[in-house]
Structures are given as C-alpha cells and as structure tokens.
Amino acid sequence: MTFFLQLVISGFALGMVYALIAIGFVIIFKCSKAFNIAQGHFVMLGGYIGFTFLVTFGLPIWAALLLAIAVAIIMGLFIERLTLRPLVGQPILAVIMMTIALATVFEGLATLIWGGEYKTYHGVLPTINIQLGDLSIPSETSIGLIVSIIVVTILMLFFRYTKSGLAMRATAEDEQVAQSAGIRVTTVYALSWVIACIVGVIGGIILGGVSGVMIPLANVGLKALAVILLGGLDSIGGAIVAGIILGVSENVAAGYLDPLLPGGGGLANVFPFIIILIVLIFRPHGLFGLAEIERI
Amino acid sequence: MALPSGIFNQSYGQDMAIVRTRTQWVILLVFLAFLFTCPIYFNDQWLTIITIIGITVISVHGLNILTGYCGQISLGHAGFMAVGGFASAVLSAKLGWSFWAALPAAALMAGMVGLIFGLPSLRVKGFYLILASVAAYFIIIWIIVQLYDVTGGIFGLAAPRPEIFGFVIKSKASWFYLVMIIACLATFFARNIIRTRVGRAFIAIRDNERAAEVMGINIWVYKLLAFFIGCVFAGVAGSLLVHYYAWATVDQFPFMDSIWYLGMLIVGGMGSTTGAILGAVSLKLLDELVIIVGPMLAETFPAIAAQAAASLGLMMHGLVIIVFLIFEPRGLVHRWHMIKAYYQLWPFSH
C-alpha cells in the first residue's frame, strides 16, 4: 500500500510538470488555433534562464522572476511576429512544422549557451516537505500544485474580467467577427504567445528549483501532448486534471508492470502515447474539450 | 507541367509522356550515366554520403505519397523504417533468408504495420492524426525493444551482407550501385503511382475529403492504401539502411529523423517527386556541411568548442525549415519551375 501511495505521489509531481506545459499549449490553441509543439522547450529555456539569473548573476528570487518574465515577453513577441505571423492562412502542417523547427532552434540555443548540462538550484526556492506517516510528499508536488493553481486562477480572472481577456475569448470564438468588432486580432495572437512564454518560463524556473532542468525535459513536451489531448485542446482546467490523471496512471502502471516485461520495461516512456491512441479512438475531443462539428 | 515554348501535345501518348522532348531525354540519360559512373569520380567518403542520400530519397518518396499527395501527415515515418529494418534483419539473420527475399518481406511488413497505424486516419485528421503518428513511432520502437529474444532489444542484432551469385555486396561502390538502382526504381514508381487512378484519388482526398467521397472515391480504401504504399517505401529504406550498416539498432531510427523527413518535403516542395529528391539531397548535404563547418567554428571560438558542433546542426536545420516556411512554402521545386519557365519562354515571357 505504501508503495502504491508513493507511486501516486511521485506521479502527482510528474503530472504537475505535464500540466504546466499543457496550460501554455492550450492558451495558444484557444486564441490562434495554432499547435505549439515547442511549449516544452519554453519550460526548458525558462529553467536555464532562471539558472543564469539566480546562480550566475546571483540575483534575489523576485528580481530573477521579474527579469525572466521580461525575457519571456520579448521572446513571445519575437516568436509571434517573426515566425508565426507570416503563416496566417497557411495549412496546419506549416504551423506545426514551424513550432517544431522553433523547438530545434531552442534546443540548439540551450546547447550552445548552457552546454545542455543538468542544472539545478536547490535552496533558492522555498521548499515544502510534508511527512504523512511513512509517506513523504516531495516539494515538487506541493509547489507544482500550488503554482499551477495560482497560474490558472490568475489566467481565469484575466480571461473573465479584463478587456484583453475578453478580446482573447472573442478571437477564440470567431476571428472574423472579433475583427469586425474592432479587436486587433494580431495583437491578441501576440498576447497569447507572450502569456504562453511567461507560463512556460515560470514553470521552468520552479522546475529548475525543485528538480533541475536539462535538455531531455523538452521531450516531456511530447508526452504532454497526451495530457492536452486527454484534457481537451481548449480547456485550461482540463489540462490540470488530465495532467494529474496521466502522471499518476503512468507512474502506477510503470511501477507495477515494468518488472513483468521482458525487454526491461520502460513503460513510462510509452504510456502517454498509448493513452493518445485510446483517446483518439474513443473521445477525440478529450474529457473537457469542445466537440468539433465539421461543415462542408 | 509546362511544355517548352513552341511544342504542343498532339496525341495521347505525347500527353502522357513523362520525358517529352529530345532535350529532356538527353538530360536524363546524361544524368543517369553520370550517376552510375559516380564511383569513378568520388572517394569512399563521398560514396557513403551519396548512398545514405539514396536511402533517404526512397524513404522521403514514401512520405511524399502519404503526406504530399494524400494529405495524411505522418511524424512516425522513422518508426515504419524501423519495422522494415528489423524485419529484414531478423528474417535474414535468424531465419537465414536471403536478402533478396527479406527485402520485399520487410517492405510488406512495414506496409502492414502502416495499415494498422493508419486506422486512426479514418476517424481523425490534422493535428489529431499527427498525434496518432507520433504515438505510433514511440509504440513501435518500444515494442521492438521489448521483443528482446527476437530483436536483441536495445543492443540490436547483426544484419548479414546481401549476396548476389556468390558476390557479397560489401564495398562502398557495390552498395552505391545497389542503393542507386533501388532509388531509381523507387523514383520511377513514385512518379507513376501518382499518374494512375489511385494517385488521382489521393490528390482528390488531399484537396477535399468530402468532395472526393461525393465523387465516388472510397476514402477508407484509398487512405489505407496511401499508408500502405508510403510505409512500403519506408520499409525498403529501413531494410537497406540496416544491411548497409550490417547492424540493426533502434538508434538508427531516431524520432528526429521523422521530423527531418517532413522538413525535406517542405524544403523540396510537397506533392512533387522532384521536390522529394531535391529536399532529401539538400538537407543531407547541409548535414555534411555542418560536419565540416562545426569543427572549424569550434577552432575559431574555443570557449564554446564542445557545444558548437552539436548545436550548429540543430539550429541550421531549424532555421532552414523556418526560412522555407516563411519565404518559399512551395519549396525548391517551385523555384526550379520558375527558373525553367523563365528560360523556356525567353525572350517572350508574356
């Protein structure tokens, strides 16, 4: 029983990482119908940027966070203006290949600047270790959960009560109607990329503080696609729920089934993709997503 | 395809001809003659590069039929190559089949697996289909690693050299000929499949699925057929790759390869046989350029020596695809047609 609970708890931590990536993806998809494969790379870059500000420059946490957000804003604006604006009206494959190409450029950049090494900065961020009988809940889980809930609350308030949030929701509903109502759709797109970058960078810094960052973290972005699909492409709350479901079930399945498999297991690497196939066959629009009706 | 100025098709035969004018025949024959005398001009290092390019061209032809013509985007192509490669290696190493029997069997096997993972395409499309193909890649590789007793897991297994009438294909030059003959055949088939009823059905499905269905095209059959044909090409390429290295491991089929194959289609031009070749050749040559330039860069900037070479390759690939997507989404082949139109119509361009 302890084994099972421990698996569940470490699965929770993994699920929070998935959820952080998935939220950024969902924001961009909601506003601009663009699929951002590079979201995992935003998180990775965020972790490395945090390392530069916190360790290399030795800045206090609030200054590092503010600077990192500033970097994220610039990064988001540049990405949207330079690479995605020219693709408006192009087929879906063009946008996806563009974000994949961006992802490889980021990976190259991270290798060039930070050497692609494992970086971590324990002790800089506050840690919350909770002990429940035999079980210890690592601070990844608690901090990740707290931050995700804060981020999602802020985003939901932003979408509901601010003018830009309203503009973003309108654009998500119907681009042309929004345009005719006087909303600058290009600004909304830029804003959505900026927000996704900020979410990714903050997530990266927190992840770097609790468990460290390295290049393969970006590949978690691929597995997070399963979360996005399960939660529904356009549901922010769904991203969190699905992140937790997937993280826990992946960990439990790997923990119990890996010893039984002949080739040494590694079920955790493939489990999200099995989920993808199952979801695609039975519920392509996810648990909380909007079913799409296709008209001729 | 536009004809040279002053030449008109006057019969059905002329209309259907791929190589239409005498000049085109001369160019084609000169090119083929040059291609098949390559071992005279190039050293072994270059022959290796050209052989790998040939294998890549075969694979990209398959992806071009699937993605460029039928519109079913696949990011799992390297996975289907792995199926072909491992099927061929297992058949020839463990069961003692000859390479000439193992190659078609491997191609068929890859095609069958392609059919299975093509099934989601009947229900979903666009981004969802891409996800299904990504899932297909990782599941295929995982299954190969799990079948430890058959495939040797992550260590892989030895793939024997092919043999023909007692002559073992081992030297670089003999491999070059084998791969080039198959690549030329693959190009010929790829070019001709598109001109048949099947190919026209693929294009109709790509352009508008509903309209194609209304016109009486059986979407089920033709989508699965596109997956089958595309994966057969991948299987042949995978089998050749494995026997060329004389060893089969999953590391020969990384996920990034599937992405680069799509990148090659974008650089070369989607939905064009010439484009597939141009894309494969240009991106592979870029790889070689990076291998040459990387160490030079590391010498110039010793501070970043270790990372420079590794990151340069990634960034170059990414930037090339970004540049093509923004400035020439129709690929190199479109540029080529424009150049051709210019000199064919010169001096009366309007």
Supply the key terms.
A: 296 residues; mainly alpha; ABC transporter involved in vitamin B12 uptake, BtuC; globular; B: 350 residues; two-stranded antiparallel sheet; 16 helices
Number of helices of chain B: 16
Cα Rg of chain B: 21 Å
Alpha carbon gyration radius of chain A: 19 Å
Count of all domains of chain A: 1
Find the CATH topology of chain A. ABC transporter involved in vitamin B12 uptake, BtuC
Q: From the coordinates shown, what is the CATH architecture of chain A?
A: Orthogonal Bundle
The SS-based structural class of chain A is mainly alpha
Report the end-to-end length of chain B measured between terminal Cα atoms.
18 Å
Question: In percent terms, what proportion of residues of chain A is strand?
Answer: under 5%
Give a count of the beta strands of chain B, DSSP E runs of length 2 or more. 4
- pLDDT < 50 runs, ≥5 residues of chain A: none
Question: Would you kindly provide a written description of the structure presented here, covering whatever features stand out?
Answer:
The complex is a heterodimer of chains A (296) and B (350). Helix content of chain A is 73%, strand content 2%. A two-stranded antiparallel ribbon of chain A has the order 1-2. In chain A, strand 1 and strand 2 form a beta hairpin. By secondary structure, chain B is mostly helical. Chain B contains 16 helices and four strands. In chain B, the strands form two sheets. Chain B has a two-stranded antiparallel sheet. Classes of the chains: A mainly alpha (296), B mainly alpha (350).
Topology, pairings included?
The complex is a heterodimer of chains A (296) and B (350).
Chain A: H1 2-32, H2 39-56, H3 61-84, H4 92-114, E1 130-132, E2 135-137, H5 139-161, H6 163-173, H7 175-180, H8 185-210, H9 217-231, H10 236-257, H11 267-282
Antiparallel strand pairs in A: 1-2
Helix pairs in contact in A: 1-2, 1-5, 1-6, 1-8, 1-9, 1-10, 2-3, 2-4, 2-8, 2-9, 3-8, 5-6, 5-8, 6-8, 9-10, 9-11, 10-11
Chain B: H1 12-16, H2 22-36, H3 38-41, H4 44-69, H5 77-93, H6 99-118, H7 127-146, H8 148-151, E1 157-158, E2 163-164, E3 167-168, H9 172-193, H10 197-207, H11 209-214, H12 219-245, E4 247-248, H13 255-268, H14 273-300, H15 305-327, H16 332-345
Antiparallel strand pairs in B: 1-4, 2-3
